[in-house]
Amino acid sequence: MKAFLAIPVILLLISSPRFEAPSNGRVSSAVEHIEMPDQGHAGAPTLLHDAAGRLVAAWIERHNGEARLVMAKRSLNGWDAPVVLASGTNWFVNWADVPSVVFHPDGGAMAYWLERLGEGRYSYGVRYITSADGSAWSDPAWLHEDRSPSEHGFVTAVPYEDGFMAVWLDGNGYATERREMSVHAREIATDGTLGEERSIDARTCDCCPTELIDLGDGRLATIYRDRSDEEIRDMSVSVFNGTEWSSPTSLHDDNWNINACPVNGPSADIAGDLVAASWFTMATGSPEVFAGFLDGQTLSASDPVRVDLGRPAGRVALRMASSDEALVMWMEGGDPEIAGLYVRTLGADGHMGNPVKLAETSTGRAVGYPRLARDGVDWLAVWTEPAPDDGEQARLRGVRFTL
User: Is the Cβ–Cβ distance between 383 and 366 less than 8 Å?
Assistant: First the structure.
């Protein structure tokens, strides 16, 4: 039985009933399309902020048989010139398992991507580089100890103490015929030195992106899709107290029984002492996206609310808009008049804003995971626009909007 976790942080618990959303949304006049700085053949975008608070976009480009991890910083005048952080001809490039960059408040940085470990379709691992000043980078190294030709990826990393903490899905169990993915974690110093590799959960869902947040008091929390012996694949939470990771507890008992991986991970954020999370499930047989604020004793969402319009594809992104309000973004499918990328606010008092349609876009895998981040007083959402049939290149697309 999974143990409950006591965390001495006072968080607010939302107690609203499940929400039955209206059948459509509307396009807000405050949504503005913006040019992204990619050079084509681009995808897998992420959004983050550097130590100075500037918005940064990172993505993958492929040119002449080479994959490149590229980033660009945003200012009042638009995007700075893109910078190539790493490149290679043996990379694993995937719509859901994506590379990124993370910045330390002291000026250091870490970047990571995926590189093949064998000839198998999903035989790949995580490579990383670090920098003490964000300009001079270390030589690439493997993040994990296991080098078997199995899957290692879905990394999330955050600044931690003098360096970084990363969590990822590790396929070491497949190398031992256990044939189960696990969640591992490891500290990385800004000089590239690796700490002890720890296993958080030995049996997890195979390919759903992970989440990792700083609780603000020296502790970290990771959220990921778990996998029980009965093939219940709900979200679980584990907390690092500076010494060890706690036994996983349930984020919410959806009881989704599925003997496959839905490739749909969680998203969470914190503002002050308030934590919110969002996730996708089909526990009832129909797709649903839920969001809620987490209980301070268990980090569970005991009574989340449904935020979608009836036929979501999930791929959620959640960010705190203020100290008592979260902004949730997700993809909606179905009726062409409704399908697209949506956002709505969720207040700690239970109030939920009207859904706002940011863009019309496909829910196909080529669109990837849309990303969400604050852009000054506004917000920016970014996703991949697949290559059309006329031979044009895949590009990044973005919109800026206000609440």
Answer: no
Q: What is the pLDDT of residue 23?
A: 36
Within 13 A of 24's CA, how many CA atoms are on the CB side?
Answer: 9
As to burial, measured by CB atoms within 10 angstroms (0-12 exposed, 13-18 middle, 19+ buried), residue 294 is: buried
326 vs 303, higher pLDDT: 326
Nearest to 171 by CA among 124, 209, 118, 120: 124
In the prediction, which pLDDT does 4 show? 28
pLDDT digits (tens, 9 = 90+) for 1-16: 333 233 333 333 333 3
Q: Quick one: which of 222, 230, 274, 276 has its CA closest to 249? A: 222
Average pLDDT over residues 142-151: 96
Identity (one letter) of the amino acid at 84? V
Give the separation between CA 394 and CA 103, rounded to whole angstroms: 27
In angstroms, the CA 35 to CA 43 distance is 14
Q: Taking residues 368-380, report their average pLDDT.
A: 96
